[in-house]
Design brief:
The structure holds three protein chains of three kinds. Chain A is α/β, with parallel strands linked by helices. The N and C termini of chain A lie far apart (64 Å). Chain A is globular, with a radius of gyration of 23 Å. Chain A contains 15 helices and 15 strands. Chain C has a two-stranded antiparallel ribbon. In chain C, a hairpin with a 3-residue loop joins strand 1 and strand 2. In chain C, helix 4 packs across helix 5 and helix 7 packs across helix 9. Chain C is globular. Classes of the chains: A alpha/beta, B mainly alpha, C mainly alpha. Chains A and C meet through helix 1, strand 2, helix 3 and helix 4 of A and helix 1, helix 2, helix 5, helix 11 and helix 13 of C.
C-alpha cells in the first residue's frame, strides 16, 4: 500500500514541477516578444497567438475533419506568417473522441493554462455546444466549423460564437427548396430516430411544403441500423419521387447501398440531407450518381479553391472536404482580424470579425452576422455519373447557387437572445 | 388485398422474407461465437473485430491484389483463421484455467487494438465494395423484389450453419472435440491431441466471423468500426439461444431476424432495442437460454 | 511489536496525509478540473470495485447508473433550479432506484449471464436516453449551473469546487472502506469466494448481493452527478457501453479487490485520455521516432494494448502487484 502512495506522490511532484516551468517560461516569452516584435505594435496576450483545435480524430467523423483539419489550420498559419514575419502563432490540437467531456475539459485547460486565444471546433454538435460555453465563459472567440447544429446561432448563441461553414437549416432550405424547384415534388423521408435526424426532417419538410411540394410519409429508423432493406421496401411502396435521407454518416451510406441493391434508385431520386464528398468517395459514383446534396464548398468550384485543394492534397493525399476548407478559411480570417484590431483580446477580435467581408477561396462576399452566423452562398449539387467525371475526386456538378441570405435562416426568425427584436 | 394489423399481406410477407434473410446472416455470425464458447468456454468479444477484418481483407484483396469476391470468400476466412490460431496459441491459451472474465477482457482489449489499427491505416469513412457481377440483379417474387445477392447470402449461411452443426453434433470428429473440452486429460489419454484441436476450433470459429464479413462487404459499409455495434447484438443472440448450444444460436439468429423484421414494420424506431427486450425476458424466464444447459 | 493505539492511528494518519496532499496539489500548480475528473472516475471505479472485487459480480452496464445520475442531477440543477446538494442527492436517488430495478431482475443469475443481463438493460436505458426529450439527445444537457452550496458557498470558482468535491469523494471513499471492513463486507467476501458455502452457512445471499448492487449503483450515481456539477453538462457518452468498459479497465489496471486500485486505475486511464497527445510528443522527442507524435490519435489502440498487457501479465493490477512485491520482500527480510 505504501508503494502506490510513493508513486502517486512522485507523479504529483513531477506534475507540479512541469507546471512551474511553464509559468516561468511565460514572462520570458513576453520579454523576447517585446524585444523583437516591436515593429508590429501588437498587444498580444503572452506575446503570441495561440489557436486551439478540437475535433474527432479517431472515430466516425475523423475523415471529414480529423487531423487533416489540423493540417489545414497549420497551412493557414504558415501562409499568414509568410506575409507577417515576426509574429508568434502556435497551434494546439487534440482529439476529443466525440466526447463532450473531453472537449470541454481540454478547452478549459487550454484557456486556463496555455493562454489559448481562440478555439476552433471540429465535428460533433454536442462537443461544440460544450466548447462554446467554455469559450463564452472565458470571453474568447469560438469558431464552430464541423458541427451542424443550428442551435449555435439560436437558443445557444453567445457573443463569442461564430458558426462558420454550414448548418442544418441551410441544408434543409437549399436542398428542400432547390430540389422541389428542379421537379422533385413528392417526398418520402427516411429519418434517423434521434434529435438531429428529426430536426433535419422537420426543417426540410417545412421547406418542401412551402415551395409547393408534398411529403407523403416518413419512417424513423434507429441510429446505426446496419440493414436498411426493410425500410427501403417501405419507402418504395410510398410512390414518392424523392427519398430524403435525414441521417448522416454510416446510416446514410448503408441506406444508399440498400437503395441501390433493391432498385429503389430506379424509381426514386435520393437526396442526402447531410452528405459530404467523403461519403461519395466511399460509395463510389455508380452507387450515388444522380443524388442531390447541398455543399458549402466544392474543391473544384473556382480557380482559387482548386489551387488550395491541390496544396492540401499534396499533404494529405485526399481532396479536402468543406469542413477542412472551412478550417483554413476561418483561421485566416481570425488572424487577419487580430492584425486589423491590433490585439487578440476576445471582444475586439469579435467586433472586427463581424464587420469584415470574407473574400477568399472558401467564400466570396461572406460576412458574419450579429448572431454569429457566417452567411455565404450555398450550392445545390448533383452527383455525376462515372462517365461525366473528368478527374479523380470530380464528383459533383452544380445545379443551383443559393445566395446566403436565402439559404440561411433569416435574422427575424432567429431565437438568439442577443438579437434585439 | 388482405390486411393484417393495418398492413397489407404482401408487405408482411416481404418483411418476413427479409427477416429470414437477415436472420440467416445473424445465425452465421453467432455460429462462430457459439462454437467458441460452447466448446472452449471462451467469450470471444473480438468476434466483431474479426468480422470486420474479413470484410476489410476482401476490400484489400480487391484493391491491392486484384483478387475479386470469389477468391476472397475463401482466402479472407483462411487468413483471419490463421491469425486467430496464432492469437489463441500465444495469448488466449494461458487464460484457460482462470475465470471467464479474463478471456472476455483479453478479447475486449484485442478488439480495441484491432479496430484502432485498422482505423489508423484506413480511416473511418469506409471503402466501396461492389456486389459481384454474377450475383447482381433481382428476382421478382410477386409480392416483392428480392436482390439475388441476398438470396445467395441466405444460401451460404444456411449451408454453413447446417454443416457445422452436423459436424459437431453428429460426427466422430465433433464427438472427440466435445469430449476434449469436457475432460481434456481423459481425452488426451486416448491419444487425441486436445490442445491442437482447441486451436483449430478457435481458428474455425474466427474464420466463420470473417466469412460473414466477406458476405456483408457488398451490402454494408466496410469500415473499421462495422463490428462494434453488431457484437452486442451477436452476444444477445448467443445468450438467448443458450451459450453452449450451436443449434440454439442458429435458431435464435433466424428467429431474431424475423422478430426484427416485424418490428421494423410496426414500430421501426424500436427495431434495435427489441433484441435486448427479448434477451431480458428470456433470461428471466429461462436463465440458461432457450436451448442451453445450466452450467 | 506495535501496541494497539498507534496501530489504530496509523491508517488514520495515512488518510489525513493523503487528503492533505490532495488538497495541496492545486496550490502546487496542478489543474483543478483535471483532478476533479480523476476524483469522479476514482469514485466510479471504487463503486464498481465494491461489486467486482469484493462481491465477485461483473456488471457490464454500470454506465447506466453513472449516466442516469448525471442526467438527473443536470435536469434538477438546470431545469428545476435546485441547489447543488439537492441535485447530487437526486442523482444518487435515481441511480439507486435504477440499481434496485436492474439488480432485482438480474441477481438470481450468475457469472456471464448476470453480466449479459446488465448489458441488455443498460443498452435499453441508453436508447431511452437517446429518445427522451429531457436529455436533448446528441446535444446533451448543456450549461448546467454550479450554483451555491447550501445557499452560501458559490461553486463557480474551480478551486472552491475542487475542495468540495474532494470532501465528498473522500467521505464516499471512507464509506466504502467502512462497508468493506464491516461484518456485511465479510459476507460479501464470503459470497465472492464460495457462494454455495455462504448459503449453507445461512446467509440470504441474494438479498446481500442485491444490497451490494444497489450501493454500488448509488455510489456510481454520485460520481456521475459530481461529474455533471464539475463539467456543466451531461451527454450520451456517459451512458454508452464503452463507458462501462472504461470503468472495468480502470479497476483492472489498478487492481481488482484492492483499496487503492480504483484510484490508481482512474489516474492512469483519465490521465491517458487527456494527456496521450502530450505523452506522444514527449516520446517522439525522446526516442526520435516520429510515429509517436501521432499517438494522440491512437487512444483506442493504446487502451486496447493496456487491456491486453494487464490481462496477460498484470492481472493483479498496479496496486495488486505492488502489494504482492511488498509482501514477498517482507517475507524475504523476515526469513
Amino acid at each position: 500500500m505504501k508503494h502506490s502512495k510513493v508513486i502517486a506522490n512522485a507523479m504529483g511532484r513531477v506534475r507540479g514541477f512541469v507546471h512551474s516551468v511553464g509559468y516561468g517560461a511565460g514572462p520570458a516569452v513576453l520579454l523576447a516578444a517585446g524585444l523583437c516584435g516591436g515593429a508590429q505594435a501588437q498587444k498580444l496576450s503572452d506575446g503570441a497567438i495561440r489557436i486551439g483545435f478540437l475535433t474527432d480524430m479517431s472515430s466516425v467523423y475523423s475523415d471529414l475533419d480529423g487531423s487533416a483539419g489540423a493540417i489545414a489550420i497549420q497551412m493557414a498559419i504558415d501562409d499568414f506568417k509568410a506575409k507577417n514575419p515576426g509574429m508568434t502563432i502556435e497551434l494546439l490540437s487534440a482529439d476529443h473522441q466525440n466526447k463532450a467531456d473531453i472537449a470541454s475539459s481540454k478547452a478549459r485547460e487550454w484557456f486556463d493554462q496555455k493562454g489559448m486565444d481562440v478555439l476552433i471546433g471540429g465535428t460533433n454538435s454536442g462537443a461544440s455546444l460544450a466548447m462554446k460555453s467554455v469559450a463564452a465563459e472565458k470571453k474568447k472567440p469560438f469558431i464552430a466549423i464541423g458541427a451542424g447544429t443550428s442551435k449555435l446561432t439560436n437558443e445557444e448563441c453567445t457573443a463569442y460564437t461564430v458558426h462558420y461553414a454550414y448548418d442544418t437549416i441551410a441544408l434543409a432550405n437549399v436542398t428542400g427548396g432547390a430540389v422541389v424547384r428542379a421537379g422533385g415534388k413528392n417526398w418520402f423521408f427516411l429519418t434517423a430516430d434521434y434529435a438531429f435526424g428529426q430536426s433535419l426532417e422537420k426543417d426540410t419538410s417545412a421547406v418542401v411544403t412551402a415551395n409547393g411540394g408534398k411529403v407523403l410519409g416518413a419512417i424513423r429508423h434507429p441510429l446505426n441500423a446496419s440493414d436498411f432493406s426493410s425500410f427501403m421496401l417501405q419507402a418504395q411502396s410510398s410512390g414518392a419521387q424523392i427519398l430524403g435521407l435525414a441521417n448522416a454518416g454510416g446510416d446514410t451510406i448503408n441506406a444508399i447501398k440498400a437503395a441501390n441493391e433493391f432498385g429503389v434508385t430506379n424509381s426514386m431520386k435520393l437526396v442526402g440531407l447531410l452528405m459530404f464528398n467523403t461519403d461519395i468517395h466511399t460509395l463510389g459514383l455508380p452507387a450515388t450518381k444522380g443524388m442531390y446534396m447541398t455543399d458549402g464548398w466544392t474543391w473544384n468550384q473556382s480557380a482559387e479553391s482548386r489551387a488550395w485543394a491541390k496544396r492540401f492534397f499534396e499533404k494529405v493525399k485526399r481532396m479536402p472536404s468543406m469542413v477542412q476548407a472551412g478550417d483554413y478559411s476561418a483561421t485566416t480570417q481570425y488572424l487577419q482580424a487580430v492584425k486589423a484590431a491590433g490585439t487578440d483580446d476576445g471582444d475586439a477580435v469579435m467586433a472586427q470579425l463581424k464587420k469584415t467581408r470574407i473574400n477568399d477561396m472558401f467564400a466570396q462576399g461572406g460576412y458574419i452576422r450579429a448572431d454569429g452566423r457566417m452567411i455565404h452562398d450555398m450550392r445545390l449539387v448533383q452527383v455525376k455519373s462515372p462517365e461525366e467525371s473528368t478527374e479523380p475526386w470530380d464528383y459533383v456538378k452544380l445545379v443551383e447557387v443559393v445566395p446566403g441570405e436565402k439559404a440561411y435562416q433569416s435574422l427575424a426568425d432567429s431565437k438568439c437572445p442577443l438579437i434585439k427584436k | 388485398m388482405i390486411i393484417i394489423l393495418g398492413k397489407p399481406l404482401p408487405v408482411l410477407m416481404a418483411q418476413l422474407l427479409l427477416g429470414l434473410v437477415n436472420g440467416s446472416f445473424y445465425a452465421l455470425l453467432s455460429l462462430g461465437l457459439a462454437v467458441i464458447f460452447g466448446l472452449l468456454n471462451v467469450i470471444n468479444f473480438a468476434h466483431g473485430a474479426l468480422y470486420m477484418m474479413g470484410a476489410m481483407l476482401a476490400w484489400i484483396g480487391a484493391e491491392s491484389l486484384g483478387l475479386g469476391y470469389w477468391p476472397m470468400l475463401v482466402l479472407a476466412p483462411l487468413v483471419v483463421g490463421i491469425f486467430g490460431m496464432v492469437f489463441e496459441r500465444l495469448l488466449l491459451r494461458r487464460l484457460y484455467g482462470l475465470d471467464h472474465l479474463y478471456g472476455l477482457l483479453l478479447t475486449f482489449g484485442a478488439t480495441l487494438l484491432i479496430q484502432g489499427l485498422f482505423r489508423s491505416f484506413f480511416g473511418v469513412s469506409g471503402q466501396p465494395y461492389p456486389v459481384p457481377e454474377l450475383l447482381r440483379g433481382s428476382a421478382n417474387l410477386g409480392f416483392m423484389v428480392l436482390p439475388i445477392y441476398r438470396a445467395w447470402v441466405v444460401g451460404v449461411s444456411l449451408v454453413v450453419c447446417l454443416l457445422t452443426w452436423f459436424v459437431i453434433e453428429r460426427t466422430p470428429l465433433g464427438a472427440q472435440l466435445r469430449a476434449g473440452t469436457e475432460n481434456a486429460a481423459l481425452t488426451q489419454a486416448f491419444g487425441i491431441n486436445v490442445p491442437l484441436m482447441i486451436t483449430l476450433t478457435y481458428g474455425f470459429g474466427v474464420a466463420l466471423a470473417a466469412l460473414a464479413g466477406v458476405l456483408a462487404a457488398p451490402v454494408l459499409q466496410v469500415q473499421p468500426l462495422m463490428g462494434s455495434d453488431l457484437i452486442i447484438v451477436v452476444f444477445a443472440v448467443v445468450v438467448i439461444g443458450g451459450m453452449g448450444s450451436i443449434a440454439g444460436a442458429i435458431f435464435t439468429g433466424l428467429m431474431l431476424g424475423v422478430v426484427e423484421g416485424l418490428t421494423r414494420v410496426f414500430y421501426p424506431q424500436g427495431s434495435s432495442t427489441v433484441v435486448f427486450v427479448v434477451m431480458a425476458i428470456v433470461l428471466l424466464v429461462r436463465p440458461a437460454g432457450l436451448f442451453g444447459r445450466e452450467a | 511489536m506495535d501496541d494497539s493505539p498507534s496501530r489504530a492511528l496509523l491508517p488514520a494518519l495515512r488518510i489525513v496525509l493523503a487528503v492533505a496532499f490532495a488538497a495541496a496539489l492545486p496550490l502546487a500548480g496542478a489543474y483543478p478540473v483535471f483532478l476533479m475528473d480523476v476524483l469522479c472516475f476514482a469514485l466510479f471505479a471504487a463503486a464498481f470495485n465494491l461489486l467486482l472485487g469484493y462481491t465477485g459480480l461483473l456488471s457490464f452496464g454500470h454506465a447506466a447508473f453513472f449516466g442516469a445520475a448525471a442526467y438527473a442531477c443536470g435536469v434538477a440543477l438546470r431545469d428545476w433550479g435546485w441547489p447543488p446538494e439537492a441535485g447530487l442527492a437526486f442523482g444518487v436517488a435515481c441511480a439507486a432506484a435504477l440499481g434496485a430495478l436492474v439488480g432485482t431482475l438480474g441477481i438470481r443469475r450468475k457469472g456471464i449471464y448476470f453480466a449479459m443481463i446488465t448489458l441488455a438493460l443498460a443498452q435499453m436505458l441508453y436508447f431511452v436516453f437517446l429518445q427522451a426529450p429531457f436529455t436533448h439527445g446528441e446535444d446533451g444537457l448543456q450549461e448546467i449551473p454550479r450554483g451555491r452550496l447550501l445557499g452560501l458557498l458559490s461553486l463557480a470558482d474551480d478551486l472552491t469546487l475542487y475542495y468540495v468535491v474532494l470532501a465528498i469523494v473522500v467521505a464516499a471513499w471512507l464509506f466504502i472502506d467502512r462497508i468493506v471492513d464491516s461484518p456485511f463486507g465479510q459476507v460479501l467476501l464470503a459470497i465472492r469466494d464460495n457462494e454455495p458455502r455462504a448459503i449453507s452457512l445461512g446467509y440470504a445471499t441474494d438479498r446481500v448481493k442485491l444490497l451490494a448492487f444497489v450501493l454500488s449503483a448509488a455510489l456510481a450515481g454520485l460520481a456521475g452527478a459530481i461529474k455533471t456539477l464539475v463539467l456543466g453538462f451531461a451527454s450520451l457518452s456517459d451512458a454508452h457501453w464503452t463507458m462501462s468498459g472504461l470503468v472495468i479497465l480502470m479497476v483492472l489496471v489498478g487492481g481488482v479487490g484492492t483499496r487503492l486500485g480504483p484510484l490508481v486505475g482512474a489516474l492512469v486511464v483519465v490521465g491517458l485520455e487527456h494527456k496521450i497527445g502530450e505523452i506522444g510528443a514527449v516520446l517522439a522527442n525522446f526516442t526520435g521516432i516520429s510515429w509517436f507524435s501521432g499517438l494522440g490519435e491512437a487512444v483506442t489502440m493504446v487502451t486496447g494494448l493496456i487491456f491486453i498487457v494487464c490481462v496477460m501479465a498484470f492481472r493483479r493490477g498496479i496496486v495488486g502487484e505492488c502489494m504482492d512485491w511488498w509482501r514477498r520482500r517482507r517475507g524475504r527480510l523476515a526469513a
